[in-house]
Each structure stands twice: as structure tokens, then as C-alpha cells.
């Protein structure tokens, strides 16, 4: 067979293959969908209430400075539907929305406290069972209703759903007090050995709502969305809260501290007291289970590196004794955070630190017995913090400004 005939046959085959394709059979046009930036889930005692924060693309430009008559318009609209199941509630949206809800750009899901107390297993099932949703959506808890949170506008961010995502990422990166918990991580913790999980809190601070753009007509706003405590879940149900200090201790034990701050008391040569602020640059934690006289004990090996950011004590910062005092003060503060968080977890019988998984891996034979009553085993287990705190830098000046002022005054 000649080369020319082979080429002709290949061309015919390619043409036939092209004719059998169906094109973009499952395409989704932008004007057919309602893009959802945030979702809220509440429970009224009998039904699930699902709220949707839907974008209005034509109005976004007016809020962000684009031209258009009539002044700025709301870039979002919030509405809710009710059902016996979460999916049932979502299906009711077809009866009141001209467009199909599109969840691929959903950034956060906010869960009301009553819904958290009832359990999050149904919500997790919805996210893992449907291809239109993403498991990377961040989960937030609120002490009131989720709908109220979705209705609020945020400063510096036209779409509050995206703003809530950014604020939790910023908190995790810069202070590490609260973690970012995607849906898939929440699911892994709920079904883990300890069956305990955490979810950061978001709430409306202030008495008035900022659900109208008129609230931004002045330099201050009556209320704002703010991150707060850490919701603790046991067997997929919320059982209580950790305060921010306990939450930071939990972050150290979970080895999720990226950057943070430590405030250490100080005292100068004249007995005048003040505070030093240390910026934690790096931190790593290893929680190690061990048996001591038949009793399970955990050692928390924490390695912290920091730099001095502020000092209001009159002291020469490069004296070995001052540096040692800073390191000892930082070590004490971190150790206290660990102990407070551990004690709170034991009080709630919620191992949110990953201790169960580490124990399971190290002692698989004993775990068969411990797993039957892990809550009691964890409650009796002691924690031994071993913190290594190292000052990497003391800043641009080797003396505090207060020290220089005292020297000039002599």
C-alpha cells in the first residue's frame, strides 16, 4: 500500500472519529447559574435551613469603584430554603431561583451552633457525595445563626464569602490561634481514632448589622465579622468552646503554628516592670506517647525560634543574661499554653491533639484495649512539655529605647 493511500485512510478515520463526538454536551453557560460564594447551615428543631450567598456580577463593579448610575448596589443576595435533609433544602431552591445554584466557587460553609450540636455528619455526606461541591471549602462555626453571618458585608472585601476565607487564612498564617479546617480535614478528624475535631468560630461583633451598604457611609462601622474561639466536636457533635489562649496551645500541640507572638514580662535593674513582645518565626512540635510504670504519658517536644519585636524595659538586649531571660520567659509562656489546652481537652474528654493516632501507631497491641475507652485513658494521661525557645534576633538596636532614654536622663 502506497504512502499516499495510507494518509488518505488516516484522514478518513479521523473524520469519522470527529463525527462520532457529541461536542460540549454538558456545558454550563454563565447566565444559567447562580454563583454561590458562601453557604450557611442552621437547624430549627425540625428542619435544616440552608442559606446561600449568591453573587450579582453586574453590581460588583459599582461596589469596587466601577461606573454606573444610581450609586453602589449590593454585590450579593442571601436567601434560604428549608427541608428535612440538607439536600432536600437545596432542591427547594429551584422553586424560587431563576438560576441553578453553582457551588464550585463556594469558599466557606458557616454552621450555626444548633446545627453543630445536632451533628455535622449529614453535611459531610453531602459534600463527599456530590461532584459539584469541593472538599476544600473552609468550615466555620457561629454561636448564632449562619444566615446572619452571610448577610453581613465586610470592609475591604466586596464579597464577604471570599473575605471570610481570606480572614481565616490570614489568622492561621500570622497568629496561628485558629486553624483553617476544610471539609475533608473535618471528616478525617471526626472518623479518626479520637473522633474529635475543631472548627474556628466567626461571629458578628457589635449590636447592629452591616447588611446594608449604607453602613459604610462613614469611617467606622457599627459591627463587623470577627474570628473568635474554637468549637470542639466529639462524635461529630459540638460539645463546647476553647478560648483563644487554649486554642493557641492546641495549635502548638497540633503542630500547626506557622507564626505567632509571645508576650514575656521583664524587669530592669531598678525594678521597673514591663513587657517584651517576641515574634515566633518558626515552631515544630512532636507529641510522643510513652509508658511510665504502666501509665500512659505524653511528652510534647516543642522547638521555637523567635525575634524581639518590642521592649519597654530599660535593658541592654545583648547581655547574655537578658537573652537568657527572654528565652526562659518564652519557654514558660509556651509551656503554660500547652498545659492549659491539654487540661481543657481532658476536661471535655476530647482529644483534639492527635494523641490517639500517635498512640495507635506506637502501641498497636495495647491500643486494642485502650480504644474501647479512650476518653478515660486520655483524661488520665499526663503531659510533659519540653520547650526549647531560641532567640534568633534582637532587632536593629542592641538596647531598648527606654534604656537609651534613661541613659540620656542621667
From TrEMBL:
Keywords recorded for this protein, A-Z: Germination, Lipoprotein, Membrane, Palmitate, Signal
Location relative to the cell: Membrane
GO biological process: spore germination
Highest taxon of the lineage: Bacteria
UniProt record similarity statement: Belongs to the GerABKC lipoprotein family.
GO cellular component: membrane
InterPro entries, sorted: GerAC_N, Spore_GerAC-like, Spore_GerAC-like_C, Spore_GerAC_C_sf
Entries under Gene3D superfamilies matching the protein: Nutrient germinant receptor protein C, domain 3 (3.30.300.210)
Membrane topology label: Lipid-anchor
Keyword Signal: yes
Species assigned in the record: Paenibacillus catalpae
NCBIfam families in alphabetical order: spore_ger_x_C (TIGR02887)
Positions of the Spore germination GerAC-like C-terminal domain: 230-395
Sequence ranges assigned to domain Spore germination protein N-terminal in this UniProt record: 27-202
KW Signal (keyword) present: yes
Protein name: Spore germination protein KC
